[in-house]
Amino acid sequence: MKKDEVYDYLAQVYLDKKGKKDKHKKRRLVWRYLFFLIPGGLILFLAVFFFSNYSVKLFNPVNYSLFLASGDEFIKINYNFTNSSLKKEGYTLTLSGLDAAPYQILCFHARRLKKHGLANLRIEIENKSKEIGYVYLSIIPHLWTEYYVKLNDFKGISYWNDISRISFFIEEWNTKNKDDVIYIDNLRFAKQSDRN
């Protein structure tokens, strides 16, 4: 054999053996990756499946509310029936067909400015069909008090999915103090009261 042939033969043998070793190494690496990737991918898939189906049920809040904004300040009803021919004062919050059907309670905080005397508050809710329901709350005190009014108590409203307004009134015949200020804040619809 000539020198060149020997070199060619050795190169071919050497390269073939090296190629086989590389193929075996690559196969081992592929199996190692598959060994870790398949279980890891399966765990990831199961985690995504579990949380996509059950996370809403597990972490759904027990009580959630729909807050009604009335601006940056409290709702303020300033009334003075002593030197006036007015028989009622109030505040109306106009809504654009608000869907209150998922809720059971109207919640808010209220207080009077004066320390002495009594005030009764009339709350009216009207839907787009012009059905009006109202409720009276007795004795609004001087300190902030939270009120929970069941929507079932607003007789006369059969559809709650298109509320057009909520109004609060002080009526002259229903107050001991003929002049005072009523403040209302944190007005919201809730699925259940915070007391539960």
What does this structure look like?
- The structure is a single chain.
- The chain has 2 domains: about 60 residues; about 130 residues, Sandwich (Jelly Rolls).
- About 30% of the residues lie in helices and about 35% in strands.
- It has 1 helix and 9 strands.
- The strands form 2 sheets. Strands 1, 2, 4, 7 and 9 form a 5-stranded antiparallel sheet that branches.
- The longest helix is centred in the first third of the chain and has 57 residues.
- The protein is rod-shaped.
- It starts with a helix and ends in a 6-residue tail after the last strand.
- About 5% of the residues have low confidence.
Q: Which key phrases capture this entry?
A:
2 domains, rod-shaped, 29% helix, Jelly Rolls, alpha+beta, 196 residues, single chain, four-stranded antiparallel beta sheet
CATH class of the largest domain: Mainly Beta
Average pLDDT score: 80
Order of helices and strands: HEEEEEEEEE
Distance between the termini: 99 Å
* Biggest sheet character: 5 strands, antiparallel
What is the architecture of the largest domain at the second tier of CATH?
A: Sandwich
Shape: rod-shaped
Rg over CA atoms: 37 Å
Number of helices in the DSSP assignment? 1
Structural class: alpha+beta
Give the full name of the CATH homologous superfamily of the largest domain: Galactose-binding lectin
Which fold name is given in CATH as the topology of the largest domain? Jelly Rolls
The count of β-strands is: 9
Residue stretches low in confidence (pLDDT < 50, at least 5 long) are 54-63
